Amino acid sequence: MILYSLAVIVGIGLLVWSADRFVISSASIAHRFNVSPLVIGLTIVSIGTSAPEIVVSAVAGLTGSGSLAIGNALGSNIANIGLVLGITALVAPIAIDRSLVKRELPMLFIVTLVIGYLLYDLKLTLIDSFILLFFLILTLYLLFYKNSDSSLSEESDIASEDINHSPMWKITGWFVFALIVLLSSAKILVWGATNIASSLGVSELVIGLTIVAIGTSLPELAASITSAVKGHHGMAIGNIIGSNLFNLLAVLPIPGLIATTWIESTVLVRDYSILLISTIILFLIVGFVKRQTSLSRFAGCFLVIGYSSYLIWIYQANQLA
C-alpha cells in the first residue's frame, strides 16, 4: 500500500511539472510559427494528450476486447467534457473564442452523430473504421486551413515569460520530452490508484469505468488546467474539443481495423447517450457563453456535478448486476 501511495504522489508531481513544460513548449511553437494557440490546442496538443487512449484501444483490439476499446473512447470523451472542462473552469474561468460555435463545435456534434449511426447495429466493421478515418482527414484539413488566418494577434494572452526563445530544436525537444513524462506520470498515477482500489476491494468493472477512463484523460486535464491558469484559453478549450474529435475519429476506429468488433448494448444505450447529451450541453453552454466571453465557475460546477452523477449511475448499475 505504501508503494502504491508513493506512486500516486510521484505521479501527481510529475504530471503537474510536465504539464507546465508541455504548455510552455506548445505556446512557444505556436508563437514561433505565428499560429493561434487555439489551432495548436485543437491539433498538436490534443493528438499528443490522446496517446493513452490510442494505446488502450490498440491493446484491447489486439487482445479481442474491442468493446472495451470503444467504451474507453466514449468514456474518455465524457470525462473530457464533464471532468476536464468542468474542473478547468472551476480553477480558472475560460475565455471562449466565438469561432468555436461556428466551426469546431458543430464538427464535434456532427462526428458524434455519425458515431451513433455507425454503432447502431452494435458492431464496428472495417468499412465503418475507414469512414471514420476519412472524417479524420477531412477534420484535420478543416482545422488547419480554415484556421490558417488565425494569428497570435487574436490571442494576445500569451505572456512573454511563457515563451521559450531557445532554438527550435530545443523547443521541440522539450515538447517531446514533456509529453513523454506527461503520459508516463499519468500511467504511474493510474497504476497506483488502481492497486489501492483493488486493495480496498473495489471491483475491476468499477475501476475500469472510473479510474482507467479518468486516468486516460489526466493528460488533457493537466494540460487544460495549466493552459487556463497561464492564460492560454484557446489552448485549454481547443485541447478538449480537439481531443474529443481525435478520440472519435482516430482512437475509436482502431479495433474495427483489426477485426469486426461487436459491442454490448449498454455501451450504446448508456455511454453513447451520455456522450451525445454531454456534447449537446457543451454546445449550449458555449453558445450561451459567447455573449459573456468566458466559461464561468458556475458552468464548471454544473459539468462536474453532471459527470459525478454519471459515475454514481455506473456504480449503482454495477451493484445491481
TrEMBL record:
Residues 6-144, 172-315 form the Sodium/calcium exchanger membrane region domain. Keywords: Membrane, Transmembrane, Transmembrane helix. Signal peptide: none annotated. It comes from the Bacteria. The keyword Thylakoid does not apply. InterPro entries: K/Na/Ca-exchanger, NaCa_Exmemb, NCX_ion-bd_dom_sf. The keyword Nucleotidyltransferase does not apply. This is Calcium/sodium antiporter. The lineage of its organism: Bacteria, Pseudomonadati, Pseudomonadota, Gammaproteobacteria, Oceanospirillales.
